[in-house]
UniProtKB/TrEMBL annotation:
InterPro entries reported for this sequence: TPR-like_helical_dom_sf, TPR_rpt, Ycf3
Pfam families: TPR_19
Record-given protein name: Tetratricopeptide repeat protein
Bias type Basic and acidic residues, positions: 46-56
Coiled-coil boundaries: none
Ranges: TPR repeats: 332-365
């Protein structure tokens, strides 16, 4: 599977203290600490990470309507033109229209690569959102006839919870937009709208929503400098854009305001993981577990364990989280995480069982559909895998499923499949350009796709840029593979070894390391790495598994 950026965005509202179920950190899994004075118990948020829906929290409603404008940096960061400029606008086009726009853009990009790519991406972003960022309103963020000052917004808390509860996100966003036109000084309402835009960007594969989210968070901070909801939301936004240093900064600021903020605690773990600071991530996961045990924290705790090679604990924690999942969104999210874990270990039947449970909870849950397709392909059902992935990319053309679908076309080798595969790889470039127009760092996706299916030198530039930002195992693997594909295998080898040094059991990493070891004359090491990759997950990649077997056969023949 591709890197699992665990940006499960907990539900809206203000986190006010620990809650049941009990935590995981202690030897007997004790409950969290007693809430500090002045707080109330609240159930942890439900929902999902980067590849799942957000949820709700039954806790205090967001602050509304006081209109207190704080002094400080954020207080001066007013949106330029009222509620419209802050991100209230029409909904995006349906997925089919977005997919058609991406295809047109990718075709144009192939005809004229280079200087106009970024401009085209920006135009594409505008086209795909149907002019969502309108201009209008007054300079102080109000519209004619809109109520201001101390007008209360009694429905804001319930409305925000409903938007993020896993229901109709688009309808919920429209309701929040309408509420904020009437109550433009609702601090919590703007923060909730920003988080909803982050979720909409993820579920629709539409990174043009991220600038709208940023404006909504900025509006909330302009109304009340340093408010925890908006700071935690900015942390989630930064993580979604792969700005993990920024995510850590905002999470730390939010936690100074509220040490029990589930969203900030979760984003802090995510940021440390993706920065490659794994010891600190483990400590952060323990802290989050002691303060806010629940699905968002449990899944992060499991992933930290998996990255350190402790698959057994990761599985046990996820199974416990699934037992405690109380909403369809949580069931789909946790079951998919279990499916991904099983797939990584080559247990395809178990993976398919978990993905089926996820889809029973939410038949449209794209990460579960993608996981099912990968398990189908690894288990020999190539036709089923292709059909499932074609559904996935038609709705959300993200790099991971696009590359896998392209490789499945290549592996099938039917008439026209080579052209179909090339089209998928071109769409990766198109999506990366659109992502950058939305402020997303797409270098890791670019490096991984271009190394195998594009320009190796472009892959190397992207991989080096990513390594400059963070030293995660995924960044190390991407740099190692890009160096190798660019003919610099000796330079690649230390990075390939670093990618596998934490104990993380990943067949792709082992395959890359084995190929690089073979290229540098370390035949014995190459044999061990390639064998380990195929024993761990024999169907890890439609094309990579085939090349690993061929390399082992060549090594045996040379003995």
């Amino acid at each position: 599977m591709p890197p699992r950026t665990n940006d499960h965005v907990p539900g809206s509202g203000r986190d006010t203290g620990p809650a049941e179920p009990p935590g995981l950190s202690g030897p007997s899994a004790p409950t969290g600490p007693v809430a500090p004075p002045g707080t109330t118990d609240a159930r942890p948020g439900t929902g999902d990470r980067a590849d799942a829906r957000t949820g709700t929290e039954s806790e205090a409603a967001p602050r509304t309507g006081t209109g207190t404008r704080a002094e400080g940096a954020e207080a001066t960061a007013r949106p330029e033109s009222g509620t419209e400029a802050a991100g209230i606008g029409p909904e995006t086009f349906p997925p089919g229209v977005r997919m058609a726009a991406l295809r047109r853009f990718s075709a144009a990009a192939r005809r004229a690569r280079g200087a106009h790519l970024t401009v085209c991406a920006a135009l594409l972003a505008v086209a795909m959102t149907a002019g969502a960022v309108a201009v209008g309103g007054s300079r102080d963020g109000t519209q004619a006839g809109a109520r201001t000052g101390t007008d209360a917004a009694p429905a804001a808390g319930a409305l925000a919870a409903g938007v993020l509860a896993g229901g109709d996100l688009d309808a919920g966003i429209r309701a929040l937009q309408s509420h904020l036109r009437a109550q433009p000084r609702d601090v919590g309402g703007w923060a909730s709208l920003g988080l909803a835009y982050v979720e909409q960007a993820r579920t629709k594969g539409d990174p043009s929503r991220y600038p709208q989210a940023e404006r909504a968070f900025d509006r909330s901070l302009a109304l009340e400098s340093g408010n925890e909801q908006a700071l935690a939301g900015r942390a989630a936004l930064a993580a979604a854009r792969h700005d993990f240093s920024g995510a850590l900064k905002y999470a730390d600021r939010a936690l100074k305001q509220n040490p029990y903020s589930e969203r900030a605690l979760s984003s802090r773990v995510d940021a440390l993981v993706e920065l490659g600071r794994y010891d600190e991530a483990a400590e952060a996961a323990d802290t989050a577990d002691s303060r806010r045990p629940g699905v968002p924290v449990f899944t992060r705790y499991a992933y930290v364990r998996e990255l350190r090679g402790d698959v057994r604990t990761a599985r046990e924690v996820l199974e416990r989280a699934l037992d405690g999942a109380s909403t369809p969104a949580d069931v789909a999210y946790v079951a998919t995480a279990l499916g991904q874990l099983a797939w990584n270990q080559g247990d395809y039947e178990t993976a398919l069982t978990h993905f089926a449970r996820a889809l029973a909870a939410d038949e449209d849950y794209l990460p579960a559909l993608e996981g099912r397709a990968r398990a189908q392909a690894a288990g020999g059902d190539r036709a089923g895998a292709i059909g499932t992935l074609e559904q996935v990319v038609a709705r959300s053309p993200l790099p991971g499923p696009l590359v896998t679908l392209g490789e499945l076309y290549e592996a099938r080798g039917a008439a026209g499949d080579r052209t179909k595969a090339a089209d998928q790889y071109a769409l990766v470039d198109a999506h990366a350009a659109l992502a950058r127009a939305g402020g997303v760092n797409a270098d890791l996706d670019t490096a991984l796709a271009a190394a195998d299916h594009g320009d190796p030198e472009a892959a190397l530039r992207a991989a080096r840029a990513e390594w400059d930002r963070r030293h995660s195992v995924h960044a190390a693997d991407a740099l190692a593979w890009a160096l190798h594909r660019s003919g610099r295998s000796e330079e690649a080898l230390p990075y390939a070894r670093r990618a596998t040094a934490t104990g993380y059991r990943n067949a792709v990493f082992l395959h890359h390391r084995g190929v690089i070891e073979l290229a540098t004359g370390h035949d014995g090491d190459a044999r061990r790495s390639l064998t380990a990759a195929l024993e761990l997950n024999p169907g890890f990649s439609p094309l990579g598994a085939r090349t690993a077997r061929a390399a082992l056969e060549d090594l045996e023949a040379a003995r």
